[in-house]
Amino acid sequence: MQPFPPLYRSINRAAIGLAGMTLALTAQPAFADQNAETFVQTILDEAEPALSVSDRDQMFDAIEDIVDKHVDMRRIGRFVLGQYARQMTDTQADVYYPLFKRYATQIYQNTLSDYAGQTLKVTGSVDRSERDIIVNSKLENPEPGDPFANAVIHWRVYRARDSKEMTVVDAGADNVWLAIEQRSQFTSIIANNGGREKGIDALIVELKKRVGG
């Protein structure tokens, strides 16, 4: 399984403008978290055979199962709304969160399926706090000349309060983060359409277009 180079197709290049924020996720001195590293490696090991399935529909189903199991879509969906999360009505939330889950899952499906057959291995981690860990990984045996041979693929792991349970809350490559870029895009859509409930309605309409219905 290859890293997330398709993220560069899936997310806007404007993410580079957030470099100061994203570098802060990995630049802070801290200690490695072997439990988080093991958690991420387990996901990567689980994904590898799923991505070897020749039938695309079966592969997508397998990826969706992995995402459902390990990725906290609710937390991510709230994060990407930024300050507008507090302005969303219950009725809007009932529509938005399932839509966001479909949208984000499709990104994972398209990204990972494009790079089946490779192997990712965890290379280390940085604890930003007791419950916020960045785990890094790279291609184990890249093909000669592979443009992503030296790419660092990041997984942001959240540890639940008073619990050892962990979930993935973001992913990225070379300091370009999916959820951070989604937040930039989503809040822009909301702001450009009047903000508050009206802007959130516009975002919902846009998400429906992106997921095809």
From TrEMBL:
Keyword Signal: yes
UniProt KW keywords: Signal
Position of the signal peptide: 1-32
Highest taxon listed in the record's lineage: Bacteria
UniProt-recorded name of the protein: ABC transporter substrate-binding protein
Organism: Hyphococcus lacteus
Organism ancestry: Bacteria, Pseudomonadati, Pseudomonadota, Alphaproteobacteria, Parvularculales
